[in-house]
Write a structure and sequence with these properties.
Number of strands of chain A: 2
Radius of gyration of chain A: 20 Å
Number of domains of chain A: 1
Oligomer: heterodimer
Number of helices of chain B: 14
Radius of gyration of chain B: 23 Å
Largest sheet of chain B: 2 strands, antiparallel
Structural class of chain A: mainly alpha
Strand order of the largest sheet of chain B: 1-2
Strand order of the largest sheet of chain A: 1-2
Largest sheet of chain A: 2 strands, antiparallel
Shape of chain A: globular
Structural class of chain B: mainly alpha
Distance between the termini of chain B: 59 Å
Order of helices and strands of chain A: HHHHHHHHHHHHEEH
Strand content of chain A: under 5%
């Protein structure tokens, strides 16, 4: 029992780490075409995420693998249910990755423009789709008695999930702009700051809207926040970090800005986790068909063994990943090595 | 066969075979670049650093495509094979996330350090980064092979009355007896491919009369490494891997070897075309007793033919047979080619034997074909089982995904991968044509 709960938070933690880390890569990509105008600036933007983006993306893969072993029925149901949406995610991941890696390999303006567009489209689409996916999980899905559902695009792209998708996109864009404020200087940094400043308002408005919409749409939010009063810490933290973000709109406050977007993402996702807990795939057909952390998990032995093996490994990962990030801290320089 | 099952199988085969082209070089080259980094750190000889940086550029392009084509595979366990995942996820899933946690983080994290860190970090740290990438990619190979090994020879589980399975031993899954030699054989294949890649580039430069020192060193390393690796590909790794098949998957062995009838003192079929309707090989060339010897160490032992197994448990015989024979045939040619190379090297004629350099350069597609053929043999030979003896392929697919959806996404992947192939050839070709930086001329 306790293992199931621990695994819920381990997975949650992995997905939150992914959203904070690859979130700024996706965010940089989403604002890329407008914040970085010249070829030099675009190279700076790419090199700002260059040494770390690949490692950041691994958090998603590791989380996926952990989902297979901890809640195999959820993995099976969600991945086959969201078939087309996930295939689109895969194709955009390919587009984003290839664009970053290949963009600067040729001097040709045509080549570079093509991959600039690829980088933007891939990042933008992913930031949006990840929010859409989360929205559908919050809203519930037509899970049948056999634990499966068919997530046609018509089902998956509904007004609520498009709203959460928009929140995801703008939050990550704000986060990416904050990252660029930290890593760059001059005109590029100023433009990043202008975008970060403007996006703050959009994010704040959407947070309010999505909160109201979720109250309306979620079958479990009210009962959960009543049963677990400590869950309020997440939305309250989100408000506090957004407020800090407001103050950090000013030039010179880039550390505070980045910190506030990091904490906002953590708080929003924590709030989402407490909205659905202990359901992973809530059934809108019949609540008893819902897949939860208790009825869709692998055996206690499997949960225990994999928890030990994975947590042990993650300790090392956190240590050397922090080292790599610290090595590349400070302002980005375009050198001979890099993009 | 059900159209949906066929569609799922075609999609997975396409995506995994395209993806695998890249890890072959990642694992092989990664090892080689780590070796070069070590030599540079030890001797301070700038030539090693130059070689490492040149291959590092190719490595980066190769790695990028390996990553983007690899992510779909992890998703596909769920998107297209959901019943398989729901059935066995608690068991085979023990090794799957370990690939992410212990290998992908290492590879990706340290690759960033290796490619971007020059000038920012000490030479020692750069060396450590190269080692991290190499170790990461080699570890990655183990965890995914262990996952496949569980499908070939399921261990560490128990079934309840309803047929559902659960984990009984993490260590049995991680240290599956089938996995060890399968892994070594796989890695050996990757290293052999890297040796051929290095040799092909070196040979090309020598034939063009460019980058003479670099090219000579490359060709020499390729032939020396290639000779050892071509031999170990057969013995012991290939041989021992084959023994696992004899022990755990006898129907697969029969199909691979084209043994349609059970035989005492079974011969090895060098060539021959399977005629399953008549239960024989057409125009075969046999070496008497050799199959019994390879399988059991006794030329008079009885080896079971396909006739011992019910028809519905036969793998697709022709595809398994040819995939296996292509792999072994190429493997034999590699040994012969490398032996000639060693002979020329000892005579001091390696860099000037143009005809041999041509063969070395043109040979580059063949180790790739051999690797893919080997995987085809082992995966198709496992049919009709998805998990050998436990779960049939037709019972592992995602029922909620229609054939039409899968055909659509397969076509999507095919198109994207065709484009990526062109990009890869173009970019790597450019790096090769540009050559190692700051070199002397011929």
């Amino acid at each position: 029992m306790i293992l199931n709960i621990v695994w819920f938070w381990v997975l949650g933690g992995m997905l939150i780490a992914y959203s904070v880390l690859d979130g700024f890569d996706l965010g940089v990509g989403s604002v890329y075409l407008w914040v970085a105008r010249t070829d030099e600036e675009r190279r700076l933007a790419l090199n700002a995420i260059g040494p770390v983006w690949n490692g950041n993306e691994v958090w998603l893969l590791a989380a996926g693998g952990m989902l297979v072993v901890s809640f195999p029925k959820v993995y099976a149901s969600a991945f086959s249910g969201f078939y087309l949406a996930l295939m689109l995610v895969l194709w955009f991941l390919i587009l984003r990755g290839v664009s970053i890696e290949f963009r600067s390999k040729l001097e040709s303006g045509l080549w570079r423009s093509l991959f600039d567009a690829g980088f933007w489209i891939g990042s933008f689409a992913l930031a949006l789709l990840l929010g859409v996916a989360l929205g559908n999980v919050l809203r519930g899905l037509p899970v049948g008695a056999d634990g499966t559902f068919q997530g046609t695009l018509g089902l998956v792209l509904n007004p609520y999930s498009l709203l959460t998708g928009l929140l995801s996109l703008t939050t990550l864009a704000w986060h990416g702009a904050n990252y660029l404020r930290l890593k760059t200087e001059g005109a590029l940094q100023q433009r990043a700051q202008a975008w970060s400043s403007g996006l703050w308002f959009v994010v704040a408005a959407l947070v309010a809207l999505v909160t109201l919409a979720t109250l309306w749409v979620s079958p479990t939010l009210e009962s959960n926040y009543r049963s677990y009063p400590w869950a309020w810490s997440f939305p309250l933290l989100a408000v506090a970090s957004l407020a800090a973000g407001f103050r950090s709109r000013q030039a010179g406050r880039e550390r505070g800005a980045f910190r506030s977007s990091v904490i906002t993402i953590i708080a929003l996702l924590g709030a989402a986790a407490m909205t659905v807990y202990p359901n992973l795939l809530y059934s809108t057909i019949n609540p008893s068909y819902s897949l939860t952390i208790f009825n869709a998990a692998s055996s206690p032995h499997a949960l225990g063994a994999s928890l030990l093996a994975n947590v042990f490994g993650m300790i090392g990962v956190i240590l050397y990943t922090s080292y790599v990030h610290r090595t590349f801290s400070g302002k980005v320089r375009v050198g001979q090595h890099g993009y | 066969m059900d159209t949906a099952v066929l569609a799922h199988r075609i999609q997975f085969s396409l995506t995994v075979m395209f993806h695998y082209l890249f890890p072959i070089l990642t694992m092989g080259l990664g090892f080689f670049i780590a070796l070069l980094s070590t030599l540079h750190l030890r001797t301070g000889d700038a030539r090693y650093s130059q070689l490492a940086r040149f291959w590092g550029k190719i490595f980066a392009v190769n790695f990028a495509l390996g990553v983007v084509s690899g992510i779909p595979l992890e998703f596909e366990f769920g998107t297209n094979w959901s019943r398989f995942s729901a059935f066995g996820g608690g068991v085979f899933g023990q090794t799957l996330p370990l690939e992410g946690v212990y290998a992908f983080f290492l590879e990706s994290g340290f690759l960033g350090l290796f490619l971007f860190g020059h000038g920012r970090v000490s030479r020692r740290i750069e060396w450590l980064a190269a080692m991290g990438v190499a170790v990461g990619s080699l570890l990655s190979g183990y965890f995914i092979v262990a996952t496949n090994a569980w499908m070939q020879h399921p261990v560490g589980y128990a079934a309840d009355a309803s047929g559902a399975i659960h984990l009984t031993s993490f260590w049995q899954v991680l240290l599956n007896p089938y996995a060890g030699w399968q892994y070594l054989h796989t890695i050996n294949g990757a290293l052999l491919t890297a040796a051929y890649a290095i040799g092909a580039v070196g040979a090309g430069y020598l034939l063009l009369g460019r980058h003479h020192q670099f090219a000579q060193l490359s060709v020499r390393l390729a032939v020396m490494g290639g000779m050892i690796l071509a031999l170990t590909q057969a013995f012991p790794t290939g041989d021992e891997n084959g023994r696992s098949v004899v022990r755990y998957q006898p129907a697969k062995l029969a199909a691979m070897e084209g043994l349609l009838q059970t035989e005492k003192g079974a011969p090895l079929a060098i060539i021959g075309m399977p005629d399953t309707a008549q239960g024989k090989l057409i125009d075969p060339i046999y070496v008497p007793g050799v199959l019994s010897f390879l399988a059991y160490g006794d030329t008079h032992a009885t080896v079971n033919g396909l006739d011992q197994y019910p028809r519905d448990l036969w793998p697709p015989v022709e595809l398994t047979y040819y995939a296996y024979h292509i792999m072994v045939g190429l493997g034999t040619l590699f040994i012969a080619q490398m032996a000639v190379g060693i002979f020329l090297l000892l005579r001091g004629k390696l860099a000037t034997s143009r005809w041999f350099l041509w063969t070395l350069m043109l040979a580059i597609p063949f180790p790739y074909i051999a690797n893919e053929a080997g995987w085809t043999a082992t995966e198709v030979g496992r049919q009709p089982w998805l998990v050998y003896g436990l779960l049939r392929t037709s019972a592992g697919t995602s029922l909620s995904v229609a054939a039409g959806e899968t055909v659509f996404t397969t076509l999507g992947f095919a198109g994207i991968y065709a484009l990526l192939s062109l990009l890869f050839v173009f970019l790597v070709g450019r790096i090769i044509v540009q050559g190692p930086e700051g070199t002397e001329h011929a």
